[in-house]
């Protein structure tokens, strides 16, 4: 029997507020929680709610530590498409998290492999991730763990799938300017998180999500590995949850 808890909400806003409440409770229970954070369009609503909770005085982020799932490589932090920039503009500039508590794989690192090794070590040194937020790619990727022959154990340097480059081209001038590589937590890194929230919205995620949650566990659909985790809450809007 699966341990997955599945919550299908009527709208993107309700999906986002449910996830934000779980994060808020996590921080109340453990003010120095280690949060794993995602980028992309999916979690924007959650971050907007988190900002509101901070403004209303409901959540204090002063002791929270964060690790982002991934970053393009190479990319400058000042590049408006970097995940560093995204996190600043969509969350960190608006809450009271200290800079030293924020961790994002460094797209400017000279040696990507050393950066990945160091990143993984930092996560371990802080006791691992308490609550990891995930989106899901149309190809089933979590972080930038693309469909592959095997699950990757730790943070690593990856070549992006043609389908991911195509999907993400909407954020860039054109497909040719999307970076071809990235640094990403591994499937092992993600699976070591104590709790996981998987978010999905929009009709184009419905089939991938159904296959990931009910289909065979395979690195060809990386999110399917979540079936083996003991504490995953899947929260979707109506369209993405249509086949669950
Ligand atoms: P999206 O991306 O939130 O922009 O749909 C999700 C993902 O690729 O993980």
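Q: What amino acid sequence fits the structure above?
A:
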């Amino acid at each position: 029997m699966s341990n997955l808890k599945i919550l299908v909400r009527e709208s993107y806003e309700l999906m986002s507020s449910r996830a934000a409440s779980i994060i808020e409770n996590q921080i109340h229970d453990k003010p120095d929680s280690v949060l794993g954070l995602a980028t992309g369009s999916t979690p924007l609503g959650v971050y907007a709610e988190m900002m509101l909770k901070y403004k209303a005085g409901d959540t204090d982020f002063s002791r929270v530590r964060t690790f982002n799932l991934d970053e393009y490589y190479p990319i400058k932090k000042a590049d408006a498409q970097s995940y560093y920039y995204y996190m600043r503009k969509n969350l960190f500039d608006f809450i009271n998290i200290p800079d030293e508590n924020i961790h994002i794989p460094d797209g400017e690192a000279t040696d990507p492999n050393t950066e990945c090794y160091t990143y993984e070590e930092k996560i371990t040194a802080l006791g691992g991730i308490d609550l990891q937020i995930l989106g899901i790619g149309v190809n089933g990727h979590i972080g930038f763990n693309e469909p592959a022959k095997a699950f990757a154990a730790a943070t690593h340097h990856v070549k992006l799938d043609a389908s991911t480059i195509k999907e993400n081209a909407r954020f860039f001038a054109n497909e040719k300017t999307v970076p071809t590589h990235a640094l990403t937590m591994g499937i092992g890194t993600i699976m070591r998180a104590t709790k996981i929230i998987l978010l999905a919205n929009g009709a184009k995620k419905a089939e991938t999500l159904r296959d990931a949650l009910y289909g065979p566990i395979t690195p060809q659909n990386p999110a399917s590995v979540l079936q083996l985790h003991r504490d995953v809450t899947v929260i979707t809007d109506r369209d993405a949850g249509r086949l669950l």
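Q: And what stands out in the fold?
A: Residues 53 and 92 are 13 Å apart (CA to CA).
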